[in-house]
């Protein structure tokens, strides 16, 4: 048996640096637990579960003052709640297994075995439980580094099954899926996205000194949740386990699960029934969750998401959740992730609304998510930043956004153009090659500068503390020297990247190198406005 409320299953790290497993109760009450020790998407899933329990135990505070009072009451309230609902957290409960449907069965007819040695799980309508772990080579997932990919009967321990199940319910991408019978009704073969994965959205959480404080810092009050209040009288909702749907026909329970704030924190996007051997499970489509990106739904964005305005079709402005962009460091989006979001306005996670304008200490943010390409999982990302307090004010926000834009302009304009001038001087046929490429001209240019771009951004990211130091010095005598040091570093990084990519020894190569270098110097000085400072 495995009871998630009281049995240790969550990988954590203590404040003394020790690695341990903890129960839900410990994570919500034990101040000696510093943080999770899990992968980025697992962190998101666990935070949503802890926040769901905390909100269920404490309710949703009405305002900032009531939210402050929740800090002292969190341990006792959550301990009492978990004891009250203890049976609902049994992973293999015979009647109400956690995040699963008891009595689930396959809708497919059993396949005949081809031979006595045929042990394919699918012949019994079961599928490998390892599908719950996106990192394992199951289905269409990559086999890279998974040396047990051919073993369809590998078993997982209950604590891993619990974490994989929770994460899968939150991040499973839509697509074709097996059919199962739930409460006498067969589920469809098509599934939609789980709530946390559309657009490869980024999730942001404020981090405290210990895990209970982290949970408290991310609790939300009613005055912050105005978008959800617009959903109707019952917008607050109840956790899934308090009002578990008896089937797709259970309208009240389904609505609570998919269209209320607390109800959808821990979703039921897939119909699952784990087998106690840890090897197999029944898997089918679960509930359909409206999302911020769903056409004509107008549903509020996830509380941990950041909303930005981008140009869509016909240059029309569209609001969307900020997603992972491959090859782009998360620090380049900090100015978008740290705007305090109000109802129907762009901005970062809702927990930032608790930030006081007079704060001088700054805040620690954990930002991460799971990148997908349709139904395929591409990558997971996570970064932790100590964000200086000035970034939350208009002057600091504008400074940071401007410096990131200058860093991008150096790479996209100065470095790119310098390399094209170098290639043109080196190879007289380069212009013809670009002309013949037609619509793929951009791809050819991207290949040309790929190495230099990687070297440039690696160097810049390594020196990110210089930008944060300049930001922290706003309004002081140290601001101008620190800003100048940051910009000179950008120029030096561009020159080093150019030199590494365009090095040569003979006369023609050196002449081409100098041609591009002159362009790089002129353009970087103009973009970074260094010529003005150096002349002064």
List the keywords.
15 helices, single chain, 536 residues, alpha+beta, 3-stranded antiparallel β-sheet, globular
What does this entry look like structurally?
The protein has 536 residues and is of the alpha+beta class. It has helices spanning 24-29, 40-58, 64-84, 158-171, 211-217, 226-229, 251-259, 334-337, 394-426, 430-437, 441-462, 464-472, 479-501, 507-528, 530-535, and strands at 10-14, 19-22, 33-36, 105-106, 127-128, 175-176, 180-182, 185-186, 190-191, 203-207, 270-274, 280-285, 307-311, 317-321, 363-373, 376-387. The strands form 6 sheets. Strands 2-1-3 form a 3-stranded antiparallel β-sheet. The chain has a 3-stranded antiparallel β-sheet with strand order 4-7-8, with no helix packed on it. A 3-stranded antiparallel β-sheet has the order 5-12-11, covered by helices on one side. Helix 2 (40-58) packs across helix 4, helix 9 runs antiparallel to helix 14 (507-528) and helix 11 crosses helix 13. The protein is globular, with a radius of gyration of 26 Å.
């Amino acid at each position: 048996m495995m009871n998630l409320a009281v049995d240790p299953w969550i990988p954590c790290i203590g404040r003394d640096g020790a690695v341990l497993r903890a129960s839900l109760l410990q994570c919500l009450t034990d101040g000696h637990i510093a943080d999770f020790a899990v992968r980025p998407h697992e962190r998101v899933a666990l935070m949503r579960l802890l926040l769901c329990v905390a909100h269920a135990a404490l309710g949703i505070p009405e305002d900032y003052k009531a939210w402050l009072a929740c800090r002292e009451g969190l341990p006792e309230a959550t301990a009492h709640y978990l004891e009250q609902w203890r049976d609902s957290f049994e992973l293999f409960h015979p009647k109400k297994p956690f995040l699963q449907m008891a009595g689930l069965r396959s809708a497919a007819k059993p396949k005949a075995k081809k031979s006595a040695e045929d042990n394919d799980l699918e012949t019994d309508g079961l599928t490998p439980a390892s599908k719950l772990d996106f990192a394992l080579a199951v289905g269409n997932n990559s086999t890279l580094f998974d040396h047990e990919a051919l073993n369809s009967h590998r078993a997982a321990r209950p604590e891993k099954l619990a974490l994989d199940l929770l994460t899968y319910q939150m991040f499973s991408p839509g697509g074709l899926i097996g059919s199962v019978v739930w409460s006498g009704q067969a589920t469809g073969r098509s599934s939609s996205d789980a709530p946390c994965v559309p657009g490869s959205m980024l999730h942001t959480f404020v981090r405290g000194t210990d895990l209970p404080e982290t949970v408290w810092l991310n609790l939300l009050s009613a005055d912050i949740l105005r978008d959800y209040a617009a959903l109707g009288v019952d917008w607050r909702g109840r956790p899934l386990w308090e009002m578990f749907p008896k089937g797709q026909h259970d309208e009240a329970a389904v609505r609570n699960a998919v269209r209320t704030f607390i109800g959808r924190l821990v979703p039921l996007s897939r119909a699952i029934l784990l087998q106690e051997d840890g090897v197999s499970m029944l898997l089918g489509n679960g509930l359909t969750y409206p999302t911020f990106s769903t056409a004509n739904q107008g549903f509020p964005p996830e509380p941990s998401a950041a909303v930005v305005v981008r140009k869509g079709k016909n240059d029309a402005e569209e609001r969307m959740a900020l997603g992972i962009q491959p090859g782009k460091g998360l620090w380049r989006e900090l100015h978008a992730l740290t705007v305090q979001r109000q109802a129907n306005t762009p901005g970062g996670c809702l927990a930032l609304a608790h930030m006081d304008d007079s704060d001088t200490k700054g805040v620690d943010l954990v930002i991460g998510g799971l990148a997908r390409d349709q139904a395929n999982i591409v990558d997971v990302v996570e970064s932790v930043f100590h964000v200086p307090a000035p970034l939350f004010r208009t002057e600091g926000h504008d400074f940071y956004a401007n410096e990131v834009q200058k860093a991008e302009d150096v790479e996209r304009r100065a470095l790119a153009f310098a390399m094209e001038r170098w290639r043109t001087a080196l190879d007289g046929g380069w212009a013809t090659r670009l002309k013949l490429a037609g619509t793929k001209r951009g791809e050819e240019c991207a290949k040309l500068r790929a190495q230099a771009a990687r070297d440039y951004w690696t160097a810049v990211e390594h020196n990110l503390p210089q930008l944060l130091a300049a930001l922290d010095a706003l309004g002081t005598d140290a601001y101008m020297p620190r800003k100048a040091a940051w910009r000179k570093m950008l120029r030096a990084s561009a020159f080093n990247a150019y030199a590494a990519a365009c090095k040569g020894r003979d006369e023609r190569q050196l002449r081409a190198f100098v041609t591009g270098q002159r362009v790089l110097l002129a353009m970087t000085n103009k973009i970074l406005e260094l010529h003005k400072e150096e002349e002064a």
